[in-house]
Write a sequence for this structure.
């Protein structure tokens, strides 16, 4: 094997290793969310209880869960997706990654898949989702008057969160909505260049609020 061929092979192998390592880190960090929701529980039955029933206020719980989720998403967007692009790697983030070769999910897709797994877990004790006034995916539209009001508030008040209560299906929830900021180029470039982008959507840049992260916790 020629020297240049060897160098190319090693570089590609290293990039794949970096991607795999970062994905493993993301998966490990995501598991912390599940552990967080059961912290303070002394028996299996308590795992499915609401946070307030085990001595954690709903707001403190939601803030903690959100911090972990955003750390995971930032790591994935910055150290996996953006880094692969900078290295001209054969592996790239693609909206249609399931039908593509050498492709991985976009940050928003990775986030949504995690949310779906938590939603399917009856012992999680909470749910979370992405919402936006400028969605590229219909699933990310506001689903209630509360969500619409929350999105407008966090867009008009940079740096502030929105907290409140909402009743759905006879169950009362504590709801926290946090600004979903563009933390990496992969986030805003995808949104700005997407074919489903509305004509009236703003051009996003670093740290702009692109929507909201909603955490919903059932109240006792």
């Amino acid at each position: 094997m020629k020297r240049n061929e060897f160098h190319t092979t090693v570089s590609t192998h290293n990039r794949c290793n970096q991607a795999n390592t970062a994905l493993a880190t993301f998966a490990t960090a995501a598991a912390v969310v599940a552990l967080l929701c059961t912290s303070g529980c002394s028996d299996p039955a308590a795992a499915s209880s609401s946070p307030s029933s085990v001595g954690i206020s709903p707001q403190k719980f939601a803030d903690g869960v959100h911090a972990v989720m955003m750390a995971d998403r930032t790591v994935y967007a910055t150290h996996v997706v953006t880094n692969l692009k900078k290295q001209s790697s054969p592996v790239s983030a693609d909206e249609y990654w399931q039908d593509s070769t050498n492709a991985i999910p976009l940050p928003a897709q990775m986030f949504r898949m995690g949310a779906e797994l938590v939603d399917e877990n009856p012992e999680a004790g909470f749910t979370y989702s992405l919402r936006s006034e400028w969605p590229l995916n219909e699933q990310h539209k506001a689903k209630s008057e509360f969500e619409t009001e929350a999105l407008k508030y966090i867009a008009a008040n940079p740096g502030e969160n929105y907290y409140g209560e909402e009743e759905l299906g006879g169950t009362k929830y504590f709801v926290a909505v946090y600004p979903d900021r563009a933390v990496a180029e992969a986030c805003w470039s995808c949104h700005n260049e997407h074919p489903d982008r509305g004509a009236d959507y703003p051009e996003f840049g670093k740290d702009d609020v692109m929507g909201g992260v909603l955490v919903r916790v059932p109240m006792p």
